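Journal club prep, shared notes

We agreed each person brings one worked example of a sequence with its structure written out as tokens. Mine is NAD(P)-binding protein. I'm keeping it raw so we can talk through how to read the token line rather than staring at a rendered picture. Sequence first:
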Amino acid sequence: MGGRTSIGRGVIEASIESGARITVSSSSQHSADSAVSEIKTLYPSADIAGLKCDLSKITVEEDLEALFNEAGPVDHIVFTAADVLALGVAVRHLPKSSESSLTLTMGSIADHPAPNWALVAFLATGLMGLTCNLALDLKPGRVNAVKPGFVNTGLWDAHMMQDEKLAMMEGIGKKMPVGKAGQVEDVAEAYLHVVKDKNCTGEIIKTRSGQQLFYMPDKIK
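Then the structure, token by token:
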């Protein structure tokens, strides 16, 4: 859920390369169909379906039930950009087995405070507790979360010009121990890890380019 662009899209592509059958949801059928078409261009043999589910509507629970009923049996659910309130419906469709998993996404702002990000930090911190408690509530099914740091995605394009984004990413990359800001295709591997590892539950997997080794609040504004 949230696989139309950015990290979600990277997770889809990495999953396809691992042989997974994919269902991607988007707020409109047109958007879902476009995502499937784009992915099919890169992976012609991909087993992928696109379904509509607008999480902003008041009928979100009914719409989610319809989504999962149409999608059929699922073994793994990955949330990269979806309201956590949708979890109540989603988890009912997961098999109670260590073969299945739920993977959430949280921001590194929970570890690195910054001005004007208090509400986002509040939500991110809450997801840490939610992940661990759900891992107990849903056992033997597995629940984990991935916590990316700065990632070079299209989401930045809505907030700055391309040259500004490029300059910011280059500046961040110079400070990172790995020499660059996070790349979608690299971060996606963290999601695949928790999906595949049947011994992994209640974990927060961090993929942050070494961001935790220094503090840079001036880059989060």
